Amino acid sequence: MRYTISYVSTVSPDLSETDIADLMSYVKQHNNFLDITGILIYSDGNFLQVLEGEKETVKILFERIKKDPRHYNIIKMLDKEIKDNAFSKYHSSFTVISGHYSHTELQQFLKKEENYNPEHFKSISYLTQKFMKLL
Ligand SMILES: Cc1cc2nc3c(=O)[nH]c(=O)nc-3n(C[C@H](O)[C@H](O)[C@H](O)COP(=O)(O)O)c2cc1C
User: Which ranges carry the BLUF domain (predicted)?
Assistant: First the structure.
């Protein structure tokens, strides 16, 4: 059974654009290594992240992320099992997007979620589009 945790948070004021870009590239690379799929969006001083993967891996990772001083006000929105889909991890890599110029990446991510995790798709689609102020 795969597992998902999703949250929003506020970026620390002393983080520069370069720090954020560095974080995004680290997260993408490390999550692909950990077999974690999902998305990290940075927009208007806030993060929204969806982590999907093996339950223990997701839970341990979230505990580490919560302690990271680069963000605060962490509000968890989803914490639940998702239907195991043997295909999902082979068809997606972790997505990172920043700002308002990333609609294409978001649409591609949502398309994959719709195909491989149709039940999970509804809540993810709502949360991410609301966060990006598209709804
Ligand atoms: C908003 C935010 C999201 C993060 N997401 C991830 C993530 O998905 N995967 C990851 O490995 N690290 C993520 N990190 C970084 C971790 O908090 C941590 O710095 C990193 O895993 C290295 O941990 P270590 O220094 O204990 O080895 C994130 C950090 C922030 C601020």
Answer: 2-93
